[in-house]
Amino acid sequence: MGADGQARQLAGEMSHKHFCHVTSHWFECNGKVLRQGDTEPSVCICNACGLPLEEGDHSQCQNFVELIICSEHRDEERRSNVADEMKQSAAFQEAAYAGLVKATEGTPEYYQALEGFLLLLFPAWEPPVTERPRPPTVN
Question: What average pLDDT does the chain have?
Answer without folding.
Answer: 77
